[in-house]
User: Which sequence fits this backbone?
């Protein structure tokens, strides 16, 4: 009887290994409203809302690993009847790895990024103003085969000497003009090259401060390999209470194929946002 009790206790203690983990997922919402009546200092009625988040799904078993995350965000501001877009992005990243050495994996990596809604060169956009972007126009997809160095859980540097980049413009009116490196009348543009990605994911600076950073470099080896595409994302998340947080985010892009409307050629693009609002972590 004693043996059976011990055996039952051992069965109860033993847990099945979890191969899938979903760490540090979060969804955030910020709302702002202002109105004025006979306000001597002046002011304009406005309503704004921003929704953003990050979802993670990671698999690990023996020598196999699979890391995935989805970043998304969308925000609008209304001033009277004028509407402006203040945030719009969707990005999927995936990396499959097979352990070669203690801190080095053979990898196949892939990402896709675009936006949800139409974008305009200038806001507020008057009725009939031609848009400069929309969902999947443009969209960027990169695929690479190489290896990753992972010194610790939060950090990874992925080098893919064999890779490619596809630029999509699915909208017919934008395709007709020829934008984002895609020739007029075409819907896609392929580049063969090499990639270097550096990730920092959910690194705790302090108990209530976490950092995320991503640096992506791509070189078209068949055409102007010295013109390197650069993409950098950085964010600090400050946890104020269980459901209130503040996020500082920075983003920089340089792409030789993107011609800015305000310049004669490619130029460094930069975006900064500071938000405080509702945050749900799970």
Assistant:
């Amino acid at each position: 009887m004693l043996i059976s009790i011990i055996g039952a206790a051992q069965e109860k203690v033993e847990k099945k290994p979890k191969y899938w983990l979903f760490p540090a997922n979060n969804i955030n919402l910020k709302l702002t409203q202002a109105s004025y009546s006979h306000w001597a200092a002046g002011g304009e009625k406005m309503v704004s809302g921003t929704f953003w988040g990050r979802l993670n799904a990671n698999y690990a078993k023996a020598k196999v690993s699979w890391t995935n995350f989805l970043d998304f965000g969308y925000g609008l501001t209304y001033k009277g009847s004028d509407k402006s877009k203040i945030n719009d992005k969707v990005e999927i990243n995936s990396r499959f790895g097979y352990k070669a050495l203690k801190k080095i994996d053979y990898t196949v990596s892939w990402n896709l990024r675009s936006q949800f809604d139409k974008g305009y060169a200038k806001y507020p956009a008057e009725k009939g103003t031609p848009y400069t972007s929309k969902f999947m126009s443009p969209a960027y997809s990169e695929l690479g085969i190489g290896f990753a160095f992972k010194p610790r859980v939060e950090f990874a540097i992925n080098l893919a000497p064999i890779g490619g980049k596809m630029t999509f413009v699915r909208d017919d009116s934008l395709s007709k003009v020829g934008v984002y490196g895609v020739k007029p009348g075409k819907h896609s543009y392929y580049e063969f090259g090499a990639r270097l990605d550096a990730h920092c994911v959910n690194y705790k600076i302090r108990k209530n401060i976490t950092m995320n950073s991503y640096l992506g470099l791509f070189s078209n080896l068949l055409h102007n390999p010295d013109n390197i595409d650069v993409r950098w994302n950085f964010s600090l998340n400050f946890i104020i209470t269980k459901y209130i947080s503040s996020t500082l985010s920075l983003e920089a892009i340089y792409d030789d194929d993107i011609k800015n409307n305000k310049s004669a050629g490619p130029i460094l693009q930069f975006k900064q946002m500071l938000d405080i609002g509702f945050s749900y972590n799970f």
